[in-house]
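#lab-general

N.A. 3:47 PM
ok so I finally got the sequence cleaned up, no stray characters, all 244 residues accounted for. can someone with queue access submit it? mine expired

B.Y. 3:52 PM
send it over

N.A. 3:53 PM
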Amino acid sequence: MARGRKARETVEATTWVRVALTGLGLVGVAASRRGLVLTRLPDEAAPGGRTGVTVGSGRAATGLDPGADTPREVLAVLDAAEEALAAFYATWPLCPGEAVRERWVALRRLPVDLEGLPGFTRRVLELLRDVPPGRTVTYSELAAAAGSPRAARAVGVVMARNPLPLVIPCHRVIGSDGGLRGFGGGSTAEGLALKERLLRYEGWPPAVVGPGRGGPPGSRLGPQATGPKPAMDESNGNIVKDGA
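B.Y. 4:20 PM
back already:
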């Protein structure tokens, strides 16, 4: 019985990896039988092949190139992810206007596998999926929506370790003062520049400013048209000092 259980766990932990060609660049995606487990930004994506990948907080799996023996449900997820990412960034870096909302629907519908992540992390990531393009949410707002209003710094840690950037849009999370804070696990100039470009592509900041108007609970429109303030973190990585 123990051997059979271990075999099932090994199968469930296996992921299949693909590199998707998008207007943004090459985006690495990995899926399990349950859904997407990993995405890699263009500068992190590598050509396909057998590779070890680390997913989230301590989740490790073996990445395999999709082949003839790939489960049908995994191929369906990888195909849908590649199609949705390619469509969403088809006009990069030019903002597609209102069409960005329509393209986002396909990204929002992609199944994700957050199995094994801590409960708070899962709640934050699931809430973030509902923030649409053109809108932003603060670290403090996400913390409050997740039931821990004093956990803005912990939300920053979750963003830094987000296993599914672009699909779970951590670039839409900003400081309560409008500062970009960090992206891609840190607050380097390159990461902040990419975060701003991703937001601009989605039509941020919007012409009309108002908290949460027309958006899901816990989301808000971006700051005034003066644009983002790419303030650097004073702490490690993407752990923010957001006291609002």
